[in-house]
Write a structure and sequence with these properties.
five-stranded antiparallel β-sheet, two-stranded antiparallel ribbon, about 170 residues
Length: about 170
């Protein structure tokens, strides 16, 4: 894969991040546009948190729309090497979507009774994928989630994680 194509893939991935920050309880979070035109929510769980098992999977049930459908350990940015069109070696930091040292969990809003947010998807998807999303929209006729709805779910997860933390103190 050449450097220009790799850079485009990285930029496309980062452009799907709609919002990131810290919850009121202090957990990092991200809201991202998913490939189906639905919004996904993610929260970073720090190492040693009582909700994590030894294998870094979530222990117990975190109540969130559709359940936890994503788990991934965060990564540190990697230093990559590439060559420009003149053959000169260049170094760059490969950005990551889910940062270490957190274990990231998330949920999606692409379930049976959910709808596709076509208006919002236009900002994040190209014309080719928008065509596919419009075709799919007839099948997804339920609730169309807005960013504030997803943020509320993320913050609800955060409160649950904080409660688990406080129970073990």
């Amino acid at each position: 894969m050449n450097a220009i194509k790799r850079k485009k893939i990285i930029e496309d991935s980062l452009n799907l991040v709609m919002e990131s920050g810290k919850t009121p309880e202090g957990f990092p979070y991200k809201m991202m546009m998913g490939p189906t035109g639905c919004i996904n929510g993610y929260i970073g769980v720090p190492p040693g948190h009582p909700a994590l098992k030894e294998d870094f999977c979530i222990e117990g049930e975190i109540e969130v729309h559709g359940g936890v459908t994503f788990e991934q350990d965060g990564k540190y940015p990697e230093r990559k090497m590439t060559m420009d069109e003149n053959g000169k070696v260049k170094l760059f930091n490969m950005p990551v979507l889910f940062e270490a040292p957190y274990h990231w969990i998330g949920f999606d809003t692409a379930h049976y009774e959910d709808g596709i947010n076509l208006e919002l998807a236009k900002k994040y998807h190209n014309a080719k994928s928008m065509y596919s999303l419009k075709m799919m929209a007839d099948s997804f006729t339920g609730k169309v989630w807005q960013p504030e709805d997803v943020r509320e779910e993320i913050f609800g997860m955060s409160k649950q994680l904080k409660e688990l933390e406080n129970e073990t103190i």
